[in-house]
């Protein structure tokens, strides 16, 4: 009976702790659950396991009570020692000769509460609560029977209570039976939980816990374990006789760990961290989970899906997220959604300055290369402008992507990186990057200047570029936020200037912590990196032809201006101020070339116009400090604008072509040409002259219509607090999102509705027009109301009050909590809610500098020409209004240069900051509307710039805000592409035979149907598993509507047909060449050879795959002559065709020719490319010709030629060749034209 009792307890204990281990593991998985469905399944499993544990425990108690009377008497149980709580971090090592004590564990869930300690010693030195790893199948029936017993779940037999009457039960630990182990009720749970995870870890040894018990005797000798423990062939333990099981005289009471409570969602259980404290720290557990997810993602098949329209079987948000995660961990950061590209920021090079030169090591990306090739093809064939729009949140990698796109555009369009255009453009971006980038809370390389790069392609090369900049963040110069930094150039200056240069500039002894404009924010600095970037900035500034000392003097003056403070003097005069930092003021006046007294007068006094009379007044300390900050911001903004103008003027060609946008301060070249010809040809104001000018403008517009633009605008921001700059930035982001929605969703849906085409999917996208109207409406928008408040000299409180009254029923405007309700309001943007603080709205929007300060920069006072040039237009306006004298009249000018031709409207500037930004944004939209857009959507994978972290919550938020799921549904199941019948026929007529098509304008619809029939036959001949999900098309009244799958298949078939045709031409040409050579040789020897000029069908069939089966050799020149000699321009493949207005504005070809003849223009030839310079740029330095370079590879490749240049040979480069992309080299007194990519610079 005792043997049976012991074996049953062995089996039940083994099963009990096995199920308890499963419970702990399931509960840990429940804490890490990410979806409600998974959490619900895990909760049901926890309930099942808990019920099973209750059944096992009750079985053990009932078994002990039934057999307790038949057992022989035992000594009374030893009193339980005091409960000890300890952590596994303090566990003592257990040796083979030590006595192991299993102390009292207590936890909230699961509760391990051992009322006493019992000791045991084994030969291997380790003690566990379970000795058998295999499970006994007989115990399963016991557990199952107890689960079904309703009495188990009663109040008396709860999940975490024991029956106190069960005394005298025996407990088996390891392989030993301990008789008279008394079951005691559970002790109160201690709030200090032990860190346990695996119950098979060695039990801790605690000094003092064994003082009340004698050393336990060895129950089983080490050499006889195999004899006493008998196992069957299934791994289970065989029953033994009672004589095989010795008993210990040391009996201690013991309580089994009760089953833990079931965590319930909504009651702090499902995702509660207090349920189980793991043995490992939370950070380590999170990192382990991330590593596991990364390993699973690397092995996932979803990483092979390069286009999200091919997701099977369901296109859900979770499927998109898992696909992007798998591709991210497999280092595939670019994913297509049809023609749209999703780019995950890889964070592979954190220290990258994000310039055009820094992308040298980046290889070509197939996804981006495909977009660029499509852009170049459409621009070359149709002549329509193309725009690559890069959008995303702040820190998503837009700037890096734009630089990669621009570099690959140069490599694909011809010329490569050795052209002067690329070199100067790279130098421009290196200079502008230091001036326009700063560290923010969310991005250490945040671009504070938006760019629109306009590129024109001619004769296979990029010959002209122009940069349009959008600068908003002016206040950062004088007041960076506490956790952010000022612009990079200031830190790079302090790290890169020599001591002699610092002494010359007045910065000797100053550090980041000593300058007020820098120590307001983050003062940490990587001096080595900043010094290196400053050296590159200095070298590239020289490439642009901008004097280094001119720019650096202005930057030093800005830094020193911050240390000039004005404080009220302790006198009765409230306007008497005291200057703090007179030495810095003297240094500033010396750097700017202005007398100190006049500079101080301009900072501390104001001129007012009272009834036509000018009067001067002193300013108080606050107004003086504000004027000082206005001067610093004006110097910085105007220096950046001057550098941009200089960079664009370098690349301006000599010819009639110019930019399509005139938002900058530079005038367009065609306006200059118009003025020149108007003054030299004909009579000014005559009808002939006016007609000629109109013809010239139309002709130039026809020639300059096409360009390729790359847009890298501001990403959405949520700074705390958000200022007026953030409101304008978010308005720009909202506008770009609306442009995306209009082009992708609205135009496709409305076109299908107009032509009666039904789509299989209903696209419900979020339209953000209400938010744009709330901000930029001309009558009641927030920006318009701000301009009105600035004109009446209002206050932030009155502005916020008027906004709330005007838009009280607008759902996009909300009242933030825990903020100053008199100065703040909130807007619900397409990415979330943002709270704006209006404390500085009015001053930032006014954006003015008084003419008292501008007048000191006139040539008569200022001897620094660069500083005078910064305020040149303002000084001219003052001179014209003052009758030739520059005298302050009490007017104000804009701090930043404006795009408006007029500077003043009375005594105030003609525009405010928001008006000027809104005007430039409208000009940008007008340019984009007339262009074919191509979208690249950037996504930020995590917020810590980590290479191995994928934040699912952050990515999901961006997927929803960018409406990626709706885009996938439209591309996969809708008709996002539509083409006119003529454009479709011109593009895909190669699918049908030549004699099948009518090739007439009135038969365009019939030709379209014939081509589509051929397309359907091609699809039927293909294997079903190779076809995409949706290859459907629809025939409308004006357009052919195509799904993305159909467009891809049409392009694939077209490419195959064109390749086959090229192979056929090559075969025919090579065969004809061979026959001609053979015939010539035989004619010289006197023998003739009959050569058939046209191959027969048999010969063509024997030629192999070069001749498709549908090729008919009966086509002759007479049939080819029927083809129209005037080939129509093909329309774009996808998207909305340009409006008819563009076609009606174009001049007739004869009018263009007459105009060109009249003014001496030749539009048939490309504009002249600027001659190559007599030097090359290496590491920011000019290296003149001749140069010594090394061969990177053998030239020629085939090893044939009179002169062979081997890899590693040092050769002399004489200059740039007339052949594009070639250099003239000298070898053995002979000159060769070698491609530039075969050469590399040797050591300088």
Automatic annotation (TrEMBL):
Gene3D superfamilies: 1.10.10.820, 1.20.5.4820, 1.20.58.530, Kinesin motor domain, Myosin VI head, motor domain, U50 subdomain. Coiled coil: none annotated. Residues 1122-1143 are annotated as: Disordered. InterPro entries: Kinesin_motor_dom_sf, Myosin_head_motor_dom-like, MYSc_Myo20, P-loop_NTPase. It comes from the Eukaryota. SUPFAM superfamilies: P-loop containing nucleoside triphosphate hydrolases. ATP binds at residues 392-399. Residues 921-943 are annotated as: Actin-binding. The keyword Nucleotide-binding applies. Keywords: Actin-binding, ATP-binding, Motor protein, Myosin, Nucleotide-binding. Residues 304-1055 form the Myosin motor domain. GO terms for biological process: actin filament organization. GO terms for molecular function: actin filament binding; ATP binding; cytoskeletal motor activity. Pfam families: Myosin_head. GO terms for cellular component: cytoplasm; membrane; myosin complex. Belongs to the TRAFAC class myosin-kinesin ATPase superfamily. Myosin family. This is Myosin motor domain-containing protein. It comes from Tigriopus californicus (Marine copepod).
